[in-house]
Specification:
Elements: H1 13-20, E1 25-30, H2 37-50, E2 55-59, H3 60-63, H4 75-94, E3 98-102, H5 108-119, E4 130-136, H6 139-145, H7 150-155, E5 177-180, H8 186-199, E6 226-228, E7 242-243, H9 255-270, E8 286-287, H10 291-309, H11 320-327, E9 349-350, E10 356-357, E11 366-367, H12 370-376, E12 379-382, E13 405-408, E14 413-416
Parallel strand pairs: 1-3, 1-4, 2-3, 4-5, 8-11
Antiparallel strand pairs: 6-12, 7-13, 9-10, 13-14
Bound molecules: 3'-phosphate-adenosine-5'-phosphate sulfate and adenosine-5'-diphosphate.
The site of 3'-phosphate-adenosine-5'-phosphate sulfate has 21 residues, from helix 3 and helix 4.
Length: 436
């Protein structure tokens, strides 16, 4: 029994669901061995995945190879088997995945426990839907199928406590979906379950039609981030003088992310892979360096390194990492953890990682000094306009006239004037005042 543990709450289920544009649930298959649980669950998983929905199947045989390999088929072990699966399914469903479980789960009380676990709202805002699917088949029919030869072995006494032969199966009385698998085809079964899920509103992205796959809104072309090299815009990059940010840049120190992203970009440029092509790649807003800013950044760096080890660390290290780390100001992520920019769907631009990348999640700002910029010819980067993600963070607002992001043709860097809230972090507010 665990003691002295504290529940950490983060996003609410509704917020996560809105961000992922999908509602999670657990579809709990139950039935005799060879009733068709796995066959139907596999077909359903494929169907839902093809519809663009996140779906994952936990299967009896497979889970018993790993997570539950210590468990046998005694009533107690089956109970523990189902308890663990229920917990795992709940986690998957909580992540907004449509979770399919196919376990015999012969005891009504164990299935009830799984249901209650999903209904529990003690540490969250809403219950997770739990859909019990009874794959019903007379034992004689299952025995005729006997795809694994287990009934034969059970009849021969080679397998003890075999469900339906020498161990009980307690049929559900109020399953949400009841499939008579000896007279229902696999396709029909999939349609029945899909129809039920649809009726419950579990297949639709919020505010869209159920049948349409989850679509990610396309970022308007003119709002995409644009890169130019050597101060020259890419031919197909519509750069205007001003662009506004309607969200507050904030972040929990994703310096490494910024580093890897910018370094990736730079590598690409330097190796000629990206050339002058517009790089649709969400990067943090880059603020104009000034001498004043650089001095302030150096002072902060000095303070930090002195504080850390007592040794001054101003050795002229001008690596991009140290420059970003020294000069950048990363505001607190409300969750206290850095978020993976790949993990949040929404308005997005394609990234070199091949995964959708949400510009919202790059919530930081970095300052590059002249030397860094020169070294990398890393100029004129503009961040895209963006919409607020949801109600969980600060309310979005249109920046004022004096807070606009502007490109300065003379210096080929993006500058921003005015100041914004620093979310309680040490932020070089003077950084944002230059380059008017
Ligand atoms: N004694 C006994 N009784 C029932 N089933 C047995 C037994 N021994 C091994 N098997 C194989 O294990 C699979 C059932 O595992 P489950 O985890 O679904 O069982 S349970 O829910 O804990 O009852 C089951 O898979 P399915 O045929 O897919 O149901 C069998 O292949
Ligand atoms: N209508 C049906 N639905 C599901 N399975 C069917 C159906 N008709 C025949 N079968 C066969 O029955 C067997 C069911 O096995 P399986 O899906 O592993 O069942 P379980 O997971 O319940 O043990 C498979 O060989 C499958 O091809």
């Amino acid at each position: 029994m665990s003691t002295n543990i504290t529940w950490h709450s983060g996003l609410t289920r509704q917020e996560r669901s809105e961000l992922r544009k999908q509602k999670g649930c657990t579809v709990w298959f139950t039935g005799l061995s060879a009733s068709g649980k796995s066959t139907i669950a596999i077909a359903l998983e494929q169907h839902l995945l093809q519809k663009g929905l996140a779906c994952y199947r936990l299967d009896g045989d497979n889970v018993r190879f790993g997570l539950n390999k210590d468990l046998g088929f005694s009533p107690k072990d089956r109970e523990e088997n189902i308890r663990r699966i229920a917990e795992v399914a709940k986690l998957f469903a909580d992540s907004t995945t449509i979770t399919l479980t196919s376990f015999i789960s012969p005891y009504a009380s164990d299935r009830q426990l799984a249901r209650e676990l999903h209904a529990d709202t003690k540490n969250t805002d809403s219950p997770l839907p739990f859909i019990e699917v009874f794959v019903d088949i007379p034992v004689e029919e299952a025995e005729k199928r006997d795809p694994k030869g287990l009934y034969k072995k059970a009849r021969a006494g080679e397998i003890k406590e075999f469900t339906g032969i020498s161990a009980p199966y307690e049929a559900p009385e109020n399953a949400e979906v009841h499939i008579h698998s000896e007279k229902t085809s696999v396709e029909e079964a999939v349609v029945m379950i899909t129809k039920y899920l649809d009726e419950q509103g579990l297949l639709k992205e919020r505010g869209t039609k159920a049948e349409s796959p989850v679509e990610r809104p396309k970022q308007p072309r003119e709002l995409e981030p644009v890169i130019s090299v050597d101060g020259k815009e890419t031919p197909d990059s519509p750069i205007s003088d001003t662009s506004t940010l309607d969200h507050e840049p904030n972040s929990q120190g994703p310096a490494s992310e910024l580093r890897s992203r910018s370094d990736d970009l730079i590598d690409g440029m330097e190796s000629g892979r990206t050339g002058r092509a517009s790089y649709n790649y969400p990067l943090p807003p880059i603020f104009a360096p000034t001498e004043e800013n650089a001095t302030a950044a150096q002072a902060r760096k000095r303070k930090r390194s002195l504080g850390r080890d007592g040794n001054e660390d101003l050795d002229g290290d001008e690596s991009s990492q140290s420059q970003i780390a020294a000069a950048g100001s990363y505001n607190q992520n409300p969750y206290g953890a850095s978020r993976n920019p790949m993990s949040i769907p929404g308005p997005y631009v394609p990234s070199p990682y091949g995964a959708p990348c949400n510009p919202h999640s790059i919530r930081g700002e970095a300052v590059f000094n002249e030397k860094y910029l020169e070294k990398h010819r890393f100029l004129n980067t503009r961040f895209c306009n963006s919409r607020p993600i949801s109600g969980y963070n600060r309310p979005s607002r249109q920046l004022q006239e004096d807070e606009r992001v502007v490109t300065d043709p003379a210096r080929d860097v993006v500058a921003r004037t005015g100041t914004t809230d620093n979310f309680g972090y040490d932020r070089p507010s003077d950084l944002t005042r230059s380059m008017g």
